[in-house]
């Protein structure tokens, strides 16, 4: 086995992300990450105090990653309604590509394992800006929460295979998002 000193913060993060996407949230353990790195689990305690710290590390990385993705999308859209649609679509794509990572951000976690303020602020900045553009300064927070709740609810149901009544899920997504955007738009 490699010496524990060879475990770097970057290699630890990368290994933890691989384990999460392969084995899910329950499989994200100190032992699984150590095995992925080719070291013994006790060597990870030089970097992290416990499993909650491991989960928090991964959750914060994912929150920042999603925030950066949404910021890039926002930068490409001048129209407020199009920005909201594009941000929602980017989150949906991310959830499909990284379902366990997405679930780690939006799912229930003990407080000690949840992403902290600065990471969550970075993950929320683009949706808050898009909501401000769409709904106005006075309703930006409420609008951002509504968009996020609808987007997450729809995406979570889709990932769980809960849409079983037939029809196109993509059409339902577009229909719902269009109506949501229209309803939240500030009067012209």
Automatic annotation (TrEMBL):
SUPFAM superfamilies: Homeodomain-like (SSF46689), Tetracyclin repressor-like, C-terminal domain (SSF48498)
Keywords per UniProt: DNA-binding, Transcription, Transcription regulation
Gene3D superfamilies per record: Homeodomain-like, Tetracycline Repressor, domain 2
InterPro entries: Homeodomain-like_sf, HTH-type_TetR-like_transc_reg, HTH_TetR, MT1864/Rv1816-like_C, Tet_transcr_reg_TetR, Tet_transcr_reg_TetR-rel_C_sf
Annotated ranges, domain HTH tetR-type: 6-66
GO molecular function: DNA-binding transcription factor activity; transcription cis-regulatory region binding
Location of the DNA-binding region in this protein: 29-48
GO biological process, one term: negative regulation of DNA-templated transcription
Tagged with keyword DNA-binding: yes
Record keyword Iron-sulfur present: no
Protein name: TetR family transcriptional regulator
Organism field: Agromyces kandeliae
